[in-house]
Specification:
Immunoglobulin-like, 3-stranded antiparallel β-sheet, 18% helix
Length: 111
Amino acid sequence: MIRALTRTTALAATLAAPLALAPVGAAWAHTPLFSCYDNGDGTVLCEAGFSDGSSASGVAVRVLGADGGVVQESTMDANSEFTFDKPDGDYSVMFDAGEGHQITVPAADIY
């Protein structure tokens, strides 16, 4: 029994060592998810979230014109959604949850 506990303890230590050396943020890493859809009525619906199931409520979202300038700025609502009037001409929509968590969807990818 003592030998089995020693092997179990050694195995646990071996498996835990890489976790101890990993960057602290890696344990809580999540990937942003962001999609936009043309509602067919002159408006666009965007939905967002994170791969770990976290809400995107309150996260900044911007509609950008062809020149990259901000046409409209808001935040994702309580349902992690954002609806806006489709602007004339070329545009894109940026979900901005901070560095490394930004996604831009060009108008050509919005159906």
